[in-house]
Amino acid sequence: MTRLIIDTDPGVDDAFAITLAALDPGAELLAVTTVFGNVALPATTANARRVLALCEREDVPVAAGADRPLVHPQPHRAHHAHGSDGLSGRSAALPNSTRAARTAGAVDLMARLLDEADEPVTIVPIGPLTNIALLLASYPELATKIERLVVMGGAVHGGNSTAAAEFNIWSDPEAARRVLVGESVPCVLVPLDLTYRCAVGTGWLDTLRGSGPRGAALCALVPDYLEHYRAALGWDGIVLHDAVAVAEALRPGILDGVSYPLDVDCSFGPSRGATIIDRRRGGPHPAGTAQTRAVDIAMDTDLDGLREFLLAGLCGG
User: Fold this and answer.
1) Which residue stretches belong to region Disordered (predicted)?
2) 167: buried, middle or exposed (CB in 10 Å: 19+, 13-18, 0-12)?
3) If we measure between CA atoms, which residue out of 248, 250, 241 comes closest to residue 21?
4) Model pTM score
5) Per-residue confidence at 93, pLDDT binned at 50, 70, 90?
6) Positive or negative torsion for Cα 201, 203, 205, 208
């Protein structure tokens, strides 16, 4: 059984991702921790609790984490894609949670769960990496308890928040560099290049909507998101970025990865927040261009198989 902690900033695609993990019979969802990102921390925390209530999984603890980046302010939220509350302005349509968020913060909760774990735990960060950077800095002795990080973020060829940078990495580049470059925990990065290719259309959404009340509730969250991606894709569909990463966490190998040295641009130029992936062929490199540690970059998948896996999981089948 896969043991998971999801660190998230819900977000429409985060809601789909949490649901996928919460309903998977082969997964033990140990906790959901929240971070600033698509919207402010109080909203991301409330949204996570509501999604778990929708899934009838209020046994899963929720803890709030960082409400800002490690060093520099987040330039802006993602209201343009996710709406004012993160869920297309429709968060109140989800059931109210009867369980309060944990008084212990996200980092302390993750540390306790890792310390108590008798088997390695997979952590799935699908928002800015601030909580994960703080966890690894504060509890370095627990790094060996982490089986791997499956991170939704970054891009090989251009971003979405800027021409160079993807939103999660761009929101806190210093935290991302600490996690992706400065640590040795095994890591899979699921970039925009792949998640866009996994986009789903209105027919897929119609099938989910018709699967029952839970599927209908999830589909009710997408209007603002669909409007945004209609313009971005050029057709009626949405990109479930975070659910693609959760799929890899639940079924290791569903995404095809290639190991590359990686760095994160923490400068203040136009490429701030970019993931710099070194795809040069092997052999000696010029002085001053030493390779950083390698990260598995998810580059491909069986697109139809992945969409079917997501749909079956979200339908509870």
Assistant:
1) 67-95
2) buried
3) 250
4) 0.95
5) confident
6) negative
| Selection from 190, 189, 218, 203 nearest residue 292 by Cα | 189
Averaged pLDDT, 20-40: 97
Rg (alpha carbons) of the chain, rounded to whole number: 18
CB atoms within 10 A of CB 73: 8
Query: In this structure, what token pair is assigned to residue 140?
Result: 């370095």
Residue type, 60: V
Rounded CA-CA distance 3/1 in Å is: 6
Q: Are strands 146-152 and 121-125 parallel, antiparallel or unpaired?
A: parallel
Reduced DSSP (H G I as helix, E B as strand, rest coil) percent helix, strand, coil of the chain, to 5 = 40, 20, 40
C-alpha–C-alpha distance, residues 119 and 205, integer Å: 36
Q: Which of 79, 157, 241, 285 is catalytic?
A: 241
Structure confidence at residue 290 as a pLDDT band (50, 70, 90): low
Paired tokens of 27:
């997964």
pLDDT, position 18: 98
Least confident piece of the model among 12-21, 130-139, 224-233 = 224-233
Domains, the chain, ranges and CATH? 2-314 (3.90.245.10)
Residues 247, 116: Cα–Cα separation, whole Å: 25
Nearest to 156 by CA among 199, 189, 123: 189
- CA–CA separation, 220 vs 74, rounded Å? 29
d(CA 313, CA 270) in angstroms, rounded, equals: 39
Which distant-in-sequence residues (6+ apart) come within 8 Å of 83 by Cβ? 12, 89, 90, 224, 225
